[in-house]
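Usage

Read records sequentially. Each one opens with the input sequence:
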Amino acid sequence: MTLELDTRQRAMLMEMGVHVWLPESEAAAPFAPDEPAPRPVEAQTFPPAATTTVPLQPRALVPAARAAVAQPVAKVVTVTAEPGAPLDLGQLDGTALAQAAAACQACGLYVGRKQTTLQVLPDTYQADWLVLGDPPDEDEDRLGHPFAEQTGVLLDNMLKAVGASRTGTGAQGAYLSNVVKCRPPFGRVPQAAELVQCAQYLEREIALVQPKIILAMGRFAAQTLLAEYPEQVVLPLGKQRGQVYRYRGIPVVVTYHPKVLLRASADKAKAWADLCLAMDVVEGAV
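and closes with the structure output:
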């Protein structure tokens, strides 16, 4: 597959200092992990609001929400349900949704978690990109936010190449999330019922963020978002790429998780093609 960049895209990437992958003897792959990269900035946290019912973990903030930290939270909303039962999340704002996730015990994934990774969102937050990753790893569980440490550095470079960032809003904004909000205990994979249960949080996140594109990074993210495509969901991720799907009416593009790209540099050219496809969707070219 040959990927051609127009003049605008080349200038944009050069201006941002991003190395772009080109075929054969040309430049190296974009967002190369071999190059020295600055350590990611730790997500800011703030203490939970006082409650007499459920002690809450400190929450990681979407950068656009930092100004809202100083505002007092009047009420803590706790959502409780038996495992597998529907959750009543439809009226929760961004703060209450994060608090509900922190106290959630609606499936077995809560056992042993340190922190959930669902971030606090202010009422006015909107981002054109929603990046959905696989279940939290040890670093994400420890820090309480998606795409942490070196996988986060690589993702930040990938987003920078398309003019977006986790610190931005609107057309330059990328909201990050995990397909489930708790790290599975003992390193096991999440079960289908657990993915379905936690998808209720994702649906509310989508309603709050109002993204124009969802980038599904990893096989579990793709499994959740392609549930309405039974002929595609059973395929390996490499065969799910290259087309636009829809989840709850939002366009979806499937690509590799940054953790995979750190191990398999040859797949970075494919990931760059996926980003270009997603960018075309956002800009209305597809």
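Summary fields computed downstream for this record:
- The radius of gyration is 19 Å.
- The chain has a mean pLDDT of 82.
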